[in-house]
Write a structure and sequence with these properties.
The complex is a heterodimer of chains A (287) and B (224). Chain A has a single domain, classed as paralog of FGE (formylglycine-generating enzyme) (Alpha-Beta Complex), CATH 3.90.1580. With 287 residues, chain A is of the alpha+beta class. In chain B, strands 1, 2, 3, 4, 5, 6, 7, 8, 9, 10, 11, 12 and 13 form a 13-stranded mixed sheet that branches. In chain B, a hairpin with a 6-residue loop joins strand 4 and strand 5. The longest helix of chain B is centred in the first third of the chain and has 12 residues. Chain B is globular. Classes of the chains: A alpha+beta (287), B mainly beta (224). Chains A and B meet through helix 6 of A and strand 2, strand 3, strand 10, strand 11 and strand 13 of B.
C-alpha cells in the first residue's frame, strides 16, 4: 500500500511538472474568442490549450540555435528579423532537436509545394517553395496558427477586448513607426523621414504586457503565423488556415508600419520567402 | 480632414476657386504658421507635412484662400517633401493653384491604400521616374491626358511594413502656374480599376511637392 501511494505521488508530481509552461512561455487556456474586436469573435471557433512564448524570438535565442545572425539591427535582446517563414520553420525544428523534443514539422526541401501558388498580381515571388507538413503529435516548437496568435494577443479567456494587445492606446503597448526612433513622429507615414529618425526594433519586453503576460504582440516586429493567407474559417476547432495560397500570414505589425497594423485583428501577409527588418516571429508548443 | 467638412457646399467651393482665380489675397485674417525643416500637423482643417533630409526648408502656412495655402522655400536639400492634403483620401475633386514654383522635381497628388497595398502618384508638375515601370495605357481627365504606369516593389518599406506592393503612376506634368486646376481623382481610380489595378482602403492623400539632389527652390500653392 505504501509503495502504491509512493508511486501515485511520483505520478502526480510528474504530471504536475509536465503541466508547467517551459521557461518564458505562457500557458494559454483554450476556449472560444472573448475579444469583441477579433475576426473570430462569435464565429464558433474553439481552440485547445497551448503554450506561447512571452517574447518574440530574440537574436540571442536565434544565434544559440542557428549560429549566425541575419538581423539588420543587432542586439541580443532585440527580436530576430530578416527571417523568412522558411527560416522560422527551420528554427523551430532545429531548436526542438537540440532540446530533445519531437520536431513539429516535416520539411521536404526537394519537392516544390503544389499548394504554393503564384501571386495573381506579381507571379512566382517565392523561389523556395519547400513542402512543409505538420506533425500534430510533435511536442516541439512551432509557429502559432493565425487563430492562436489572435486569441493569445487578444487576451484569451481574460480578454478585455482591447484593440491592441494589452491596451487601446498603441503608444502604451506597441512599437510602431511613430515611437520607434529618436523622436516621436507625427503627421503621415513617410519612409525617408522614418529612416532619418533612426526607427528600429526595440529590446523585447519593454512595453506593457497583455492580459496573459505576453509582450510585444502588437508592434516591434511582425510575427509569422503558420497559415496560408486566405478566407477565415468559421465553425471550426483549431483552424489551420487555407489549404494553399501564395503568402503566409503575419500578425501584430512592427516598428516600420502604421498603428492600424498593430491592432490584433489586422491581417497581413508576405510571400513565405519574404524578409524584412521588421519581420520576426515567436514560437508555440502544444500542451 | 476632407474638404467637405471644411467647406459645406459646392457653392462655397466654387466661390473659393473663383477667389483664388481672381488672385484675391485679402480674405481671412492672414494668420501664419512657420515650420522649419520638419513638421507635421493640421492647419485650417488640412493635413500638412514638411520633411527635409539635409539642407534647409521653411514652410509657411496661411489661412488665405480657405485655409489650404502654403509656401515652402528650400536650399541645398537632399530630399524635401511638403504639402497639404486629406485623410482619408478618396474619389474627390482636388482643387489646386500653384502660384509660383521653381527648383522642384514633381508636384503630385500622392497617397496610399491598404488591402491591396498601393502607393499612387498623379503628377501635375515635373517628371516621374518611370524607366523601370510598366506602361499600362493612358487616361484623359480634367482636360488632359496622363500616361499610366505600374511599378512592382518587392519586399520594400511600406505603410504596413515590409511588403510587396504596386505603385500606380499617372504621369502628366503639364500643369501651369497661377491658374486653378482640378484633379478628379475618381477618374484615375476608375481607370486603374479598368486596367486591372485595384485600390483598397484609403489612407492619407496630399498634394506634395518633392525636390532632391541638392536642389534649391520655392513653391506657393493652395489646395481646396
Amino acid at each position: 500500500m505504501r509503495k502504491q501511494l509512493a508511486a501515485a505521488a511520483i505520478l502526480f508530481l510528474v504530471g504536475a511538472c509536465s503541466a508547467q509552461p517551459p521557461d518564458n512561455f505562457v500557458l494559454v487556456k483554450g476556449g472560444t474568442f472573448k475579444n469583441r474586436t477579433s475576426n473570430y469573435y462569435e464565429k464558433n471557433i474553439f481552440l485547445s490549450d497551448f503554450y506561447i512564448g512571452k517574447y518574440d524570438v530574440t537574436q540571442e535565442d536565434w544565434v544559440e540555435v542557428m549560429g549566425t545572425n541575419p538581423s539588420r539591427f543587432k542586439g541580443g535582446d532585440l527580436p530576430v528579423e530578416m527571417v523568412s517563414w522558411y527560416d522560422a520553420i527551420d528554427y523551430c525544428n532545429r531548436r526542438s532537436i537540440e532540446e530533445g523534443l519531437q520536431p513539429y514539422y516535416k520539411i521536404d526541401r526537394k519537392t516544390k509545394d503544389p499548394d504554393n501558388r503564384p501571386n495573381p498580381r506579381f507571379g512566382d515571388l517565392d523561389d523556395i517553395k519547400w513542402t512543409v507538413l505538420r506533425n500534430p503529435g510533435g511536442d516541439g516548437y512551432r509557429l502559432p496558427t493565425e487563430a492562436e496568435w489572435e486569441y493569445a494577443a487578444g487576451g484569451g479567456q481574460s480578454s478585455r477586448s482591447y484593440i491592441y494587445s494589452g491596451g487601446n492606446l498603441a503608444d502604451e503597448v506597441a512599437w510602431y513607426w511613430r515611437n520607434s526612433g529618436d523622436n516621436y513622429l507625427t503627421g503621415y507615414w513617410y519612409w525617408p523621414e522614418i529612416v532619418e529618425n533612426h526607427d528600429r526594433t526595440m529590446p523585447v519586453g519593454r512595453k506593457k504586457p497583455n492580459e496573459l503576460g505576453l509582450y510585444d504582440m502588437s508592434g516591434n516586429v511582425r510575427e509569422w503565423c503558420w497559415d496560408w493567407y486566405g478566407d477565415l474559417k468559421t465553425n471550426a476547432t483549431n483552424p489551420q488556415g487555407s489549404p494553399g495560397g501564395f503568402s503566409r500570414v503575419w500578425k501584430g505589425g512592427g516598428w516600420m508600419g502604421a498603428d492600424f497594423c498593430t491592432a490584433t485583428a489586422y491581417r497581413g501577409s508576405l510571400a513565405a520567402n519574404g524578409k524584412g527588418p521588421d519581420q520576426g516571429f515567436r514560437v508555440c508548443r502544444n500542451k | 480632414m476632407h474638404l467637405a467638412r471644411f467647406v459645406s457646399s459646392r457653392t462655397m467651393q466654387v466661390l473659393f476657386a473663383a477667389l483664388v482665380m481672381a488672385g484675391c489675397a485679402a480674405i481671412g485674417a492672414d494668420a501664419q504658421t512657420t515650420v522649419q525643416n520638419n513638421g507635421t500637423g493640421t492647419n485650417n482643417g488640412y493635413f500638412y507635412s514638411l520633411y527635409t533630409s539635409s539642407g534647409s526648408a521653411t514652410m509657411t502656412l496661411t489661412d488665405d484662400y480657405g485655409g489650404g495655402n502654403y509656401s515652402i522655400s528650400w536650399s541645398g536639400v537632399g530630399d524635401m517633401v511638403g504639402g497639404k492634403g486629406w485623410n482619408p483620401g478618396g474619389s474627390i475633386s482636388v482643387g489646386y493653384n500653384v502660384g509660383a514654383a521653381n527648383g522642384y522635381n514633381t508636384i503630385s497628388v500622392y497617397g496610399w491604400t491598404t488591402n491591396p497595398l498601393v502607393e499612387y502618384y498623379i503628377t501635375e508638375f515635373g517628371s516621374l521616374y518611370t524607366a523601370d515601370a510598366t506602361y499600362k495605357g493612358s487616361v484623359s481627365s480634367d482636360g488632359h491626358t496622363y500616361d499610366t504606369y505600374e511599378h512592382e516593389q518587392v519586399n520594400q518599406p511600406s505603410i504596413e511594413g515590409t511588403a510587396t506592393f504596386e505603385q500606380y503612376l499617372d504621369a502628366w506634368g503639364g500643369s501651369s502656374i497661377g491658374s486653378n486646376h482640378t484633379v478628379t481623382t475618381g477618374n484615375h481610380f476608375n481607370n486603374w480599376k479598368n486596367l486591372g489595378m485595384p485600390l483598397g482602403n484609403f489612407n492619407y492623400m496630399i498634394l506634395g511637392t518633392e525636390a532632391y539632389n541638392g536642389a534649391s527652390g520655392y513653391v506657393n500653392a493652395t489646395v481646396w
